[in-house]
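Thread title: Can someone regenerate the structure for this chain?

I was given the following input by a collaborator and told the matching structure tokens would be attached. They weren't. Posting the sequence so someone can regenerate them.
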Amino acid sequence: MPTAKETGDRLAINRRGLLYAATAAVGVAGIAAAVWPLLDQMNPDARVRAAGNIVEIDLDGLEPAERRVLRWQNSPIFVVRRTQAMLEAMQETSFVATLVDPDSTKRQQPAYAKNWHRSIDPVLVGVCTACACVPEYFAEASALVVAGGYICPCCASHYDPAGRAYSGPAQFNLPVPPYAVAGPGKVLIGKNAAGEIYSLETVERI
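Best answer:
Regenerated them for you:
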């Protein structure tokens, strides 16, 4: 059997080890607390992340009423070259009266796309703002009130060629991603126009 002295020595060693462990834990926590602000500062914010993921689109070969689909930040992006008939139909007074947000006042696009046409050749996030399904594209007015646009196959929300909602449960226009014109026929998705700061994380509904 261990003597009283041996038992006391063992208890003292155990207490000493526990004290060392506690001191080390406090030290690690202190270092982590000191380093975290630095690491957090090095983390890019939403605007930087958006700017770092840029996709170039060449529109030279895009035919009138033709749609192209690409992926950007895990979202489908629709690009359509609108026809004159589409542009005229989008401005008809009777049609404009049916739009949920005709002047794009809700935060669904950058400031440089806050107008009735929402861009020269529309670049839209192809996700229904009512149910998050991917809307189907129609080049003609056969299935739509206006010439061209989108219909969600899940909830039947309708959007015009500029992505403006006008029928069904959708209460928000299709979002416009950050984009910039890089030259004749070239658009950069993910890059803002000069002097603008915008990312999809700032929109009201995707």
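The first helix runs from residue 4 to 42.
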